[in-house]
Amino acid sequence: MKKHFAIFLFALLVLGLCAPAVFAQASGTVKGVCKDVTGAPVADGIVVWNNLDNGQKYTLKTNKRGEYFSLGLSPGSYTVTLYKSADDQKAGKEVFHVNKFQVQLDENNLDFDLKKEQRAKHDQGP
User: Fold this and answer.
1) b/e burial code for range 73-109 (CB count within 10 A of at least 16 → b)
2) If 110 and its partner were Cys, which of 11, 32, 52, 90 is the partner (CB 3.0–4.6 Å)?
3) Of 15 and 118, which is predicted with more confidence?
4) pTM of the model
5) What is the per-residue pLDDT across 67-82, written as a single tens digit (0 to 9) for each?
6) Tell me: the pLDDT tens digits for 74-114?
7) Helices (DSSP H) in the chain: which residue ranges?
């Protein structure tokens, strides 16, 4: 009886170790760096990933260097919105957004460089 119990525990352990690998194959990771118009990091900013395919919403916070990271986003098309703070998010004061960003099963990188965006907008003219 002890032998069967040990085999059962071993099988359970193997299944438990395989589950994260299966989960990782069904989702993607996102990361990026957020910088303001002066090139400084957007510390404690909010990056909202809204899945246009299934309505799931992921809210991520940037660190002191303006970096954000998340595991487990479903593949699909997203609207990604940057807010300077949680208060700005509540007030609907977005800094910038990207429409229809495609999240793949792999690592996905989306940086917000507002200085670069401002320059590109200026170069295009009115």
Assistant:
1) bbbbebebbbbbbeeebeeeeebbeeeebebeeeebe
2) 32
3) 118
4) 0.76
5) 999 999 999 999 999 9
6) 999 999 999 999 999 999 999 999 999 999 999 999 999 99
7) 2-25, 86-91, 114-124
Whole-angstrom Cα distance, residue 58 to residue 75? 13
* Residues 65/41, Cβ–Cβ less than 8 Å: yes
pLDDT tens digits, 26-62: 899 999 999 999 999 999 999 999 999 999 999 999 9
Beta strand pairing status for 112-113 and 28-35?
parallel
What is the pairing mode between strands 28-35 and 107-109? parallel
- Main-chain dihedrals φ then ψ at residue 108, nearest 5 degrees: -120, 130
Tell me which residue of 47, 124, 121 sits closest to 89, measured CA to CA: 47
Structure tokens at 62: 């940037």
